Amino acid sequence: MRVALFATCLTDTFFPETARAVVRLLERLGCSVEFPLDQTCCGQMHFNTGYREHARPLARKYTDVFAGYDHVVAPSGSCAGMVREIHPTLGESPPRTFELAEFLVDVLGVTDVGAWFPHRVTYHPTCHSLRMLGVGDKPLALLRAVKALDLVELPDSTHCCGFGGTFAVKNAETSTAMLADKMTCVLSTGAEVVSAGDNSCLMHIGGGLSRLRTGVRPVHLAEILASTEEDPWLATR
Amino acid sequence: MASAREEILQRIRDARVPAAEPVVRGYRDTGPGGVELFAERVADYRAVVHVVTDVPEALDRLRGKRIVVPPDVPAEWLVDGVEWLHEPLTIEELDRSDGVLTGCAVAIADTGTIVLDGGVAQGRRALTLLPDHHLCVVRADQIAASVPEALHRLEPTRPLTFISGPSATSDIELNRVEGVHGPRTLEVLVIT
Amino acid sequence: MARNPVTWLGSPTFPKAAHKALADTQLRQNLRKATGTIRGRRAAAVAEMTDWEQLRVAGEQIKNDVLARLDTLLVQLEESVTARGGVVHWARDAEEANRIVLDLCREEQATEVVKVKSMATAEIGLNEALEAGGVHAVETDLAELIVQLGDDRPSHILVPAIHRNRSEIREIFQRRMGVEVSDEPADLAEAARVHLREKFLTTKVAISGANFAVADTGSIVVLESEGNGRMCLTLPDTLITVMGIEKLVPSWQDLEVFLQLLPRSSTAERMNPYTSVWTGVTPGDGPQRFHLVLIDNGRTATLRDSVGRQALRCIRCSACLNVCPVYERTGGQSYGSVYPGPIGAILTPQLVGDMRDPQAASLPYASSLCGACFEVCPVRIDIPSVLTHLRAEAVEAKGRTAESVAMAAAAWMFKEASRYEKAQRAGALARFLARDGRITSLPWPGSRWTSSRDAPAPPSESFRAWWRRNRG
After folding, report:
1. CATH says B32-191 is which class?
2. Cβ separation of C464 and A170 shorter than 8 Å?
3. What is the 3-state secondary structure (H, E, C) of chain C?
4. Chain B, 127-186: which have a CB under 8 Å from a chain C CB?
5. Second label for B135, Cα 20 to 30 Å away, from B33, C27, C95, C352?
6. Cα separation of C66 and C243, whole Å?
7. Are the Cβ atoms of A35 and C368 closer than 8 angstroms?
8. Domains along chain C with CATH numbers
9. What is the CATH number of the domain that holds A187?
10. Are C38 and B164 within 8 A, CB to CB?
11. Are B155 and B113 in contact (CB under 8 A)?
């Protein structure tokens, strides 16, 4: 199956290992992955902050760049949500765009992707995956099938981590209060890795965990699923 | 200058809200119903429920008390040994009574609700409000299964009171406690 | 035009108000406890309903129909209320509504009135207006009473004193009622009963709001728990009901939807203890004079906005407040309005009607857009969509700011992949700020991030650079 990767600007720029993991994972599952180099940003930050008119040309660009692909996959629930739910309100008809977990489960029909990840992991289902896209427990189904992975349930998992895009800086203190509670829940699990399907939320949770030197690492779901016994994930960063 | 009425109506028209799609009533309009469910749901509110076959027998507990009754209460409910208070009654008299005995218009099994409409054996609204103890007689055939079924049976222009358990409040720490201004004891007699 | 009292004069913007609230340990604890309790109870009450989604859809559609036919339905309501002996008044704004109510009180020669909890009267600042006119309004809802006796402001739609715990309530009651009382909720409720009993039995004028008004029958509906509503709606000679023009339902049958949606969404009960329905005046039963005051106060302006008008579907259940992570931490008073929480963040600025007001314009940003509010809303108000819509209005009203310049620059950069890549390469230099892969301190505005979170160091090679090197 021919699949276009929409890396998202955040992952492309700050978390390239996640995008490389998506490529590795999808190719292992028999997909032919393409990365149209003209892609940039879906316009979510602009739209959500009130700069709708700036988001419009970016939505346009997205449609143009990915036209002709039957499946676009993004390692981000919020960017996939922006494309699927918001771009149409900006007058676009974007190509079918999937968040990674729903692409794996719904389109490829797999839950066991042959991964191996010998770590204790807790999973935060990000708000847009959960409520905008309705991804449900598909990520958990994928994680449960990973060999050697010790999955621990995250208390109050559906509560927002407090990122919210520019909310994290415009209402930094409220955002931090939400983050504090999320970190408390993460730490209560005794997990060494907190995973999610969105690097933006992980940057937030991970940024807090790092500031407090908790030693808990944020790892995108794609990197866990890409990890195998032969080619394991390494804490390189 | 246009009146407030004309101005508001004009502003509404100027808003040009497009016609809405038709309402789809895909929800349940009925339910399992029945005396048992009704009794269970009433009891969930910490109301007292008795399922009985005979009203007078069940009223034995009222002996020695001063109980308000609506004007058209069935004669056989007025058992001996109770001081029955008849209308006209002042607010103070109602307030000083020990309780009130009424029938109801409709009851709802799904929600454990009784509805009074000022009809037979119910009286005006103040009667069931000021006495601290309300005994309500519900006939099995008055129990509607669901909220939609109950509303269908009611006449909306009558003064209606839906009662679901004793007076309560959730205003302290968002948890329910019983007993504020309305009757603190609700006793329901279901007649089968 | 007079200032809309829906926001409190002099309130700081949301981030400033939140700064203070977040540091209030007692408030944080009270809110955590109360919202946690109600969230769990609501979820259970809703889980019992197999047709909850169908009810939500019907609720949404009925309210949309009301908004589409509002003029006709209001005229119909007026006719049915009048036919049953009621008098209908119309008020364009708060000032006009307050004047109507005050005049009615004066006609009855009332110096004191009893009140049932009502958002509409709180929104228009009725109590203050009556007080200025020599009429004292006694709040009879327990939570409203706590707020009134504590000289406080409301912080929740359903439970205005949610920010107070039992021991604080005890303190207020002892101080203002002059009684000894324990902090047991049942004892506190008893104290309120005793305190208000005489008022209920003797006051001649009552003021209420309305949860619903049925256009074709003229019936008004009030849902409550304590019985204070029944007292006010039954015992006085005169009843004045103040109602927003959007509180209509077209027909009696429509109530079957809302009487199922509202109690479970607000107090998490199958049914609230008491619901009163009255139509005009009933001879020999209840108030013999009935006035209905219909208020606009910003609603028709809200109606003009095709996205924002859905806020007028709101039935004031407060489920969105209880699930909101922002509300839970900042409390209701941070919103500076009688309508706090997610619904307040979209309703308040629209009723204010002026996005140049910095406080009102800060409210749509008081959300992480997590969507929990939309998920629980019984009439399916897409609050996140309205929030982003109003943010766009706030941006437009603000004009050129440092932020708008930065946003324009970012948009320009993203429009061309080549510019974006150049920026990526330039930004990658920031990794030299990093130690061990993390940046702990950035200059403003990045400092707002690094004040509590480390920032990731940009990698030496972006994904696209890697792709080009390996696959290009």
Report:
1. alpha beta
2. no
3. CCCCCCECCCCCCHHHHHHHHHCCHHHHHHHHHHHHHHHHHHHHHHHCCCCHHHHHHHHHHHHHHHHHCHHHHHHHHHHHHHHCCEEEEEECCHHHHHHHHHHHHHHCCCCEEEECCCHHHHHCCHHHHHHHCCCEEEECCHHHHHHHHCCCCCCCCCCCCCCCCHHHHHHHHHHHHCCCCCCCHHHHHHHHHHHHHHHHHHCCEEEECCCEEECCCCEEEEEECCCHHHHHHHCCCEEEEEEECCCEECCHHHHHHHHHHHHHHHCCCCCCCEEEEEECCECCECCCEEEEEEECCCHHHHHCCCCHHHHHHCCCCCHHHHHCHHHHHHCHHHHCECCCHHHHHHHHHHHHCCCCCHHHHHHHHCCCCCCHHHHHCCCCCCHHHHHHHHHHHHHHHHCCCHHHHHHHHHHHHHHCHHHHHHHHHHHHHHHHHCECCEECCCCCCCHHHHCCCCEECCCCCCHHHHHHHHCC
4. 129, 147-148, 151-152, 156-183
5. B33
6. 15
7. no
8. 24-30+43-299 (3.40.50.10420), 418-470 (no CATH)
9. 3.40.50
10. no
11. no
- C253, C276, C303 ranked by CB distance to B12: nearest: C303
Structure tokens at C333: 């008073």
By residue count, chain C amounts to 472
Are there at least 3 beta-carbon pairs closer than 8 Å between B and A?
no
Q: Which residues in chain A are closer than 8 Å to C380, comparing Cβ atoms? A: none
* Chains A and C are in contact, defined as 3 or more C-beta pairs closer than 8 angstroms: yes
Which of C50, C55, C74 shows the shortest C-beta gap to B9? C74
Handedness of CA C233, C236, C237, C240 (dihedral sign): negative
Chains touching A (3+ CB pairs < 8 Å): C
Range of the domain at A53: 2-107
- The DSSP letter of residue B17 is P
Residues of chain B with Cβ-Cβ distance to C165 below 8 Å are 173
In a mutagenesis test of the A interface, which of C390, C453, C466, C468 is the best target, namely the one with the most A β-carbons within 10 Å? C453
With contacts defined as CB-CB under 8 Å, which chain C residues touch B27?
51, 54-55, 58, 257, 260
- How far is C370 from C379, CA to CA, in rounded Å? 18
Out of C190, C218, C252, whose CB is closest to B179?
C190
Rounded Cα gap, residues C98 and C259, in angstroms:
30
Tell me the C-alpha to C-alpha distance, in Å, between residue C361 and each of A113, C349, C352, C356.
47, 7, 10, 7
- Same domain? For A102 and A195 the reply is no
Tell whether A81 and A22 lie within a shared domain: yes
Predicted-assembly ipTM surpassing the 0.95 threshold: yes
Give residue B178's pLDDT.
86
CB contact under 8 A, B173 and C75: no
Task: Give me the helix-helix angle, C341-352 and C383-398, nearest 10°.
Answer: 40
Q: Where residue C430 falls among pLDDT bands split at 50, 70, 90?
A: confident
Q: Which of B157, B174, B178 faces C38 most closely, judged by CB atoms?
A: B174
Contact state of A46 with C464 under an 8 Å Cβ cutoff: no
C198-215 per-position pLDDT tens digit = 999 999 999 999 999 999
Contact: chain C with chain B (3+ CB pairs below 8 Å): yes
Total domains, chain A: 2
Q: What is the pLDDT of residues C43-54, one digit of tens each?
A: 999 999 999 999
Nearest-by-Cβ selection for B181 from C69, C226, C245: C226
Is the residue at A234 inside a domain?
Answer: no
Contact C461 A16 (CB under 8 A): yes
The pTM assigned to this predicted structure is 0.97
Q: Which residues of chain B have pLDDT under 70?
A: 1
pLDDT in tens, A128-144: 999 999 999 999 999 99
Q: Residue B191: in which H helix or E strand, if any?
A: strand B185-191
Residue in B5, B157, B169 nearest the CB of C189: B169
